[in-house]
Amino acid sequence: MTSAETPVHTRLRDLPATFWWLWTAQLVVWIGRFVVPYMTLFLTSSIGMSAAGAGLVVAAYGAGVVVSSLAGGVLADRFGRRRVLIGSELLSVVVLVAIPLVDGTLLIAALLTVYGLFNGAAGPVIHTMVGDLVEPRHRRAAFNYNYWAVNLGYAIGPLAAGFMAEHSFALLFWCQAALVLVSTCLVAAKVPETQLPAPAPVAGEVVRAGRGDGLMSVLRDRVFMTFAAVMFVYSVVYVQSMTTLPLVMTEQGHPSSHFGMLLTLNGVLLCVLQLPTARYFQRWSRDLVIVVAIAVTAVGVGLQAAASSLAMYMVTVAVWTLGEMGSHPQATSLTADLADTARRGRYQGVYGVTHSLAMAVGPVAGGLVLDSYGSRALWLGAAGLALVVSVLLAVTARSRQRRVAAVMEADAAARAAVEPPVPELARS
Question: I need a surface site. Which of 25, 84, 108, 388 has the fewest CB within 10 A?
């Protein structure tokens, strides 16, 4: 275990006030995260598309997110985190309002792509801001609280979304637009710019690489890019829960509200268990936690091959939720600790691509497997991929631990250059 991972008890007051306003803004957005989980149902039920065709349209959104995830990280480093976050959310509101008002598959696909181009920037920018605001010893706790906000929102929103979808899919788009606008207002009123000044050059490979050569230096970072590539494969498995799972349940005769219940179950479990398990996970290396968590995810996904009743689906969702709570926040905090101060946005942008690119690839691959081979092959294949990911992460863990130790020295130098660092941001 590196010095950055030495067990630390983080109290609420150890995290700055600005972090909690950002946390609240994130919570509001995720309460209204209605559109993507129900997009495949919208396209198949209202537009009349096949599973594979719906996957292609949803992939258009994913393609937009791939671009904006990278662009958001680069722009956040260059022009400031706050400006990029507010801009991306305002533009997302405009497109969300427009989508239900148009007809035609091609036009809907085009608008989803534009929505992805605006919306995808927000996630990497928020993660970058958390890394800016919180000192390294409290980051694991901060990212767990951040992920808790995401899932608290999911515990509140999707159940209502399921019932809204049974009456009008347009309500999903317009309600999400309204909540994104509320979140934007919170950021504009309460969250100042968080970007720290770049430190003076410090001896060491990580810092030298981080100055002057931008995104390409991140792409040449073998330690980080290996981690990002492996997590991309995991994300392809994960997105099946939002794209092909509702299609499988619909084919089995489940109403859309049943899928909403599963999303709510996922969110409730994460809300109840995320923080207690995070304190327990703090005793162990993040790499070990991630490896075990993804193996547990594989078990839950594989069990879906035998599921047909709502009760059985609830069991499978409970299992892979246990894996989810140990993988996502740990991986995001690890990305923050692998990134030096000068390129923190770029690292989070590239890491964000692992999920956003999976949003483009996953629906197409999952839809094709579902149409060609059926749900059993889909879930067993996804479980096998997750097990491969777990093994690869275990094999490459040592190199990441060495890199984190080196980056922590550079981060300490950057924070020492700001007097006082976090408290001043919190009061501004």
Answer: 388
Nearest to 339 by CA among 1, 4, 113: 4
Q: One-letter amino acid identity for 332?
A: T
Residue (of 154, 167, 164, 148) closest to 15 by Cα position: 148
Residues 6+ apart with CB under 8 A from 317: 241, 262, 265, 266, 300
C-beta separation of 357 from 232 below 8 A: yes
Q: Give the closest residue to 293 by CA, choosing from 227, 390, 382.
A: 390
Please provide residue 374's backbone torsions phi and psi, each rounded to the nearest 5 degrees. Answer: 95, 170
DSSP 290: H
pLDDT at 210: 40
Range of the domain at 86: 19-195+202-427
Read out DSSP for 148-193? HHHHHHHHHHHHHHHHHHHH-HHHHHHHHHHHHHHHHHHHHHH---
Specify burial of residue 13 (Cβ count, 10 A radius: 0-12, 13-18, 19+). exposed
Q: Are 245 and 36 in contact (CB under 8 A)?
A: no
CATH of the domain at 56: 1.20.1250.20
Instruction: Using a pLDDT cut of 90, give the percent of the chain over it.
Output: 32
Q: What's the domain count of the chain? A: 1
Residue 423 binned pLDDT confidence (cut-offs 50, 70, 90): very low
Distance in angstroms (rounded) separating the CA atoms of residues 310 and 316:
10
Asked, for residue 341, whether it belongs to a domain, the answer is yes
Q: Is residue 9 part of a domain?
A: no
The answer as to whether 14 is a domain residue is: no
**Which span out of 62-76, 98-112, 320-334, 387-401 was modeled with the highest average pLDDT?**
387-401
In our burial notation (b when 16+ CB lie closer than 10 A, e otherwise), range 262-300 reads bbbbbbbbbbebbeebbeebbeebbbbbbbbbbbbbbbb
Q: How far is Cα 64 from Cα 406, in angstroms, rounded to an integer?
A: 34
